[in-house]
Design a protein that fits this description.
Chain lengths: 385, 372
Amino acid sequence: MSALDGRPGAAVGVAGEAAELRFRDPARARELAGAIARVTEQVDHAPVSIMHVCGSHEQSIAKFGLRTLLPKGLDVIMGPGCPVCVTDVPEVDEAVALAQDGIRIASYGDMLKVPGSAGSLSDAQAKGARVDVVYSAAQAVELARDTDEDVVFFASGFETTAVATAAVVLADPPPNFSVLSAHKYIPPVMEIVAEMPGARVEGFLAAGHAATITGSAIFERFVERHGLPVVVAGFEPLDILAGLLRLTELVRDGEARVVNAFPRCVTPEGNRNAQEQMWRVFRTTGGRWRGIAHVPNGNLRLRDEFAHVDARRRFDIDVRRLWDHAPSQLTQVCLCGDIMAGIASPMDCPLFGKECVPDTPVGACMVSTEGTCRIWHMYGGHPDL
Amino acid sequence: MERKSGETTVTRGGPDSDGAPRPSRIRARSAGPDELITLKHGAGGVPMRLLIEETLAAGYPERPVEGRGVEAMDDGAALRLPDGSWLVVTTDSHVVHPIRFPGGDIGRLAVAGTVNDLAMMGATEPLGLTCAVVVEEGFRRIELEAIQASMLEACREAGTTVITGDTKVMGRGEVDGLVINTAGVALASRIVTDDGLRPGDRILVTGTVGDHGIALMARRHELEFEEELLSDVAPINALVRGALAAGGDRIVAMKDPTRGGVASALHEMAEKSGVSIVIEEPTVPVRHAVRAAAEMLGLDPFHIANEGKALLGVRPDRAEAVLAALRAHPLGSEAAIIGTCAADHPGRLVLDTGLGRRLLTEPVGEPLPRIC
């Protein structure tokens, strides 16, 4: 056991400390922040607005307090980067209806509190429904193996978790296992956000983990169509700052291209094997993303040949009975949609931190630990500290 | 982030330790009568505190003697005896899954939890503990014997014993395995509350944070690390006794960061004292494996339960002396000064990450498994 008096990033134990210093080194962080400030000043307008589309990026930015390092002339906006937040009411209703019918539901912890027409899975659980929190698709399959009853995996997430769901679907799961897919596909929604009236996004910071699967080249077409730069970045504080620096440089130089700032994990072509598995199991279909819009090709659903694992086809899911519950008046005031589109911040919302808190969320952005409002509520957003 | 609706203040009860009646801080979003009790109400955060303040601790008649009671929501109660000393009382029920976990079991937890709650009031020499057990039909006797043996061992470490008890056996399914309740009594010449902080005071932690909760969760999720994750469950009354001897009345607040972790405990101390606390994250001792497991599980070590640690608020002139006393004890060898109280942003915790600053909030209704 090492002594740790006041050493930066003090971690007891040895393994991993070097990595931590490399990617969380305060001195390097300040250098990068200084460079970002100089580049931002060289842009002929202010503020420079860039968007990331990933809850993990926002988590890192907020958790490490990076906004207090960034120049005032740079707006880093979180877009629709939380798959839990954009899970729409009808999808939650399907899971709640199944749970109320006595079917055992397994899902990621965040999904339990997403509000549907008549409450969330968590509410259903408090009234006796059986809901299990799992940390992986494989864990949901294990649950099914340990029992004879039906287990439905309410699956959410972007490409990263969709690949994991595809893998278990392809690995011959037990007959009592099925998937209720709320998986989303990120590239189409970037197009929607870029074209939104009022959008002032000048560049995108793309999520490194999703790009390990899809490859960075997937953004080429987007760059071509919209003339906006895309930088793929990782999640450690220095990864993010390096990505932001590259992106502000591209904005300053008016250069629209894809830059991979996370080359230790991401290649242009991505993980072909994972992509192949994902597309063997899933097809894209249009659907509403909560608070955003109808997103063409934005939802991932199981292909016909996997109908036997598709909860939507195995069960007769009747969500109509949930519709008698009038949605709360407050949802009319909720700004989640504008916040996820990057045209409003949580501070603009009259409900934020008052009627809408993590314990009793009004909008989905307050539910997930990847949601903008939840993150800002937890870490203080743009704190004046 | 102020809360407006349903605000209430409780001022009932006697004056606290420095003689001035002080309203306890309650900011409530009162729930309707249809609200169901859920796991979040037991998670040690805001929902739990509101439930206690609004329901479980509400409406009792005044105490016949001077002291610090349920309205203070402290680690235990203190009643003033005719000779001027204090009788400190605390009680705690223990349920934990699994019943045996890396580094301890429910028996050790039941003794340490109560001994430590007494110590947090400044009462480090417990006169005795009560022990009530509720056992499910079908529980194995040999397992009960092992748990009793570990209670015995923990009592020896703490220098105390069990003085009375109660036993119930419930039908299968009527209780989940085993529930143990312990209460403790001790005498103290001076009590330490959790609300005595002033701007400038230093905050000390007696060792690494997050060990207990992460050890249990890693076991449940079958995560393995090169460095074994062990619960820190231990009676720390002797450690605290040493600190009190070195710091005397310059130790102005103490709290053990159990459920809800360091964030919840410091929040409560900051709010009750009307100060903010700036925490220097790089100085907070966290085991590497705990940090790694917490990141994997999407958790913050500051939100994770500890069962053998204490947070101390110390006037600045004695902070180093108290730190030295803590480090002289085997259970305090990794103690550190982690923060400083300030006057602005009262009730808030500000975390300086070494890269920038942000708020450190209390955990709210996380989907955390029950861990103590």
